[in-house]
Design goal:
Largest sheet: 4 strands, mixed
Low-confidence stretches: 145-151
Oligomer: single chain
Shape: elongated
Amino acid sequence: MKKIISIITILALSSCKTFPDYPQIHRYVYDEEAYFKGKDCSFKGKVLYKGKELYQVAIKLTVNKDYCEISYVDFDGNFYFCLDTTKINEQSYIEFVSEGYERKKMWLKKFLKTDKIVELKKGKKNVSAKEYMYFHENIRGCSLFSDIVED
């Protein structure tokens, strides 16, 4: 009887796969030099609502179909971004999204000629919390692999 139980136990243990197949993990290293190469990082601005600073604003700069940049507003309403200005075209735009306020889109060429102070408004089409989180998380893919290299 002990022999039969031992054989069944050995068969059961040897037939089970003990470790699942995990996907291969690549090690990536942030390449700061590659990210900043050819970019102008002097752009800064402020986002306001009725003269008061907003601090929960996600910003997406769509330069062309293959290139975009992102920025987020700090607690003082300031934002900063780096941009390869040689790639800007007539269809390039910047978009500001904040929960409880209307989305604001501007042509990038027009925005770069202003004082870069953006006033958001409340209206009929205010951004919901769900819409804001969706936008906030999705723009993180912009230029995702332009600043990392495989080690």
